[in-house]
Amino acid sequence: MAASKPLVIVTRKLPDAIETRMRELFDARLNVDDHPMDQAELIEAVQKADVLVPTITDRIDSKVIVRAGPRLKLIANFGTGVDNIDVATALDKGITVTNTPGVLTEDTADMTMALILAVPRRVVEGNDELRAEHFHGWSPMWMLGQRIWGKRLGIVGMGRIGQAVARRAKAFGLQIHYHNRKPVHGGIEQELEATYWDSLDQMLARMDIVSINCPHTPGTYHLLSARRLKLMKPTAYIVNTARGEVIDENALARMLEAGQLAGAGLDVFEHEPSVNPKLLKLKNVVLLPHMGSATIEGRIDMGEKVIINIKTFADGHKPPDRVIPAML
Questions:
Q1: Which residues on neighbouring strands pair with residue 265, listed in sequence order?
Q2: DSSP 59-121
Q3: What share of the chain is helix, strand, coil (3-state, %, to 5)?
Q4: Which is deepest, 123, 155, 172, 274, by most CB within 10 Å?
Q5: Distance of CA 280 to the CA centre of its chain
Q6: Position 4 pLDDT exceeds 90
Q7: Cα within 13 Å of Cα(130), Cβ side
């Protein structure tokens, strides 16, 4: 990388404090109007940048990476997930990839817990009924939901976020179950009073609420397939704040419509920003526009991690948040 300030191209609008600091440290080219870059613009960016700072909505696939110029040596992703980047192709071209792990754990866990509460208790549906002037006074049988205290929560993916969800859910009286590639440390399992299931199929069949908290990788694409969704109890709820691709969305929509599942809380979708029209029509589904990590503090923390990764790399050292293929 050049001895002068590296040319850093940022694909989307970031918090003012982060953009200001980037301008101070780097030759930063910002996306002031926050328009999503198309493939041609991304290719133009990688052809002249030393560092590209994309977000999860930018598809940095092999078609973009192979067109990268000789100066591009770092892709510093503004986000934890890197399923938007062809990491293998980048590494083959000698381009380092970094992300921003850890900073969104509590925010995403908060949103997950909010959906776990909102869907069984029909919070959004109740709000809609009130605004539609359908509330004519308290009635003992109106807007009945399901109690969550004492119910079984099955967490798919017991990483940082999954564990943070478990801590919150335990405080609400839920029994914690989880499926992961391997059991978590015994001390964590004991703290959470969590039950490990080696078989995802067996866990799904027994849970009252299922929370998806695993990353999207080739191995987790449609992990909750139509077959697995059918294993769940018709009284069960499903919450997803991870990635939409982990669930077969068409199958989920059909089952919710047919009453084969009690409800769902979804912050992510398989074909974002498009949402399955069937989901939009259902009252037993809470839909959010991918806002699980959307806090001011979280965005600033993400930006600071990006800056640290770039500065460390520019100074000739290995950045702290390098993405290694074995991690995916």
A1: 239, 286
A2: -B-HHHHTT--TT--EEE-BSS--TTB-HHHHHHTT-EEE--TTTTHHHHHHHHHHHHHHTTT
A3: 35, 15, 50
A4: 155
A5: 20
A6: no
A7: 9
- Surface-to-core class of residue 143, CB atoms within 10 Å of its CB (0-12 exposed, 13-18 middle, 19+ buried): middle
Question: What pLDDT, in 10s, does the model give residues 268-281?
Answer: 999 999 999 999 99
| pLDDT confidence of residue 135 | 97
- The answer to whether 55 touches 77, Cβ cutoff 8 Å, is yes
Question: Which pLDDT value is given to residue 2?
Answer: 46
Active site residues: 243, 272, 290
Residue type, position 204, single letter: L
Report how far residue 269's alpha carbon sits from residue 86's, in angstroms, rounded to the nearest whole number: 20
CA atoms within 13 A on the CB side of 12: 16
Residue listed under structure tokens 């074909």 = 271
Long-range contact set of residues 149-152: C-beta below 8 Å, sequence gap at least 24: 149/173, 149/174, 150/174, 150/175, 151/175, 151/208, 151/209, 152/177, 152/206, 152/207, 152/208, 152/209
Burial class for 178, CB neighbours closer than 10 Å (0-12, 13-18, 19+): buried
Phi/psi of residue 324, nearest 5 degrees: -105, 135
Burial 34-61 (b: 16+ CB within 10 A, else e): eeebeeeebbebbeebbbbbbbbebbbe
Peptide bond into 183 cis (omega under 30): no
Q: Where do we find the tokens 């083959």?
A: 92
Nearest residue to 156 (alpha-carbon basis) of 184, 180, 190: 180
Per-residue model confidence as pLDDT tens digits over 176-227: 999 999 999 999 999 999 999 999 999 999 999 999 999 999 999 999 999 9
C-alpha–C-alpha distance, residues 226 and 229, integer Å: 5
Locus of tokens 């109690």? 147
Q: Kindly state the tokens that stand for 37.
A: 């870059």
Q: For the chain, what's the residue count?
A: 328
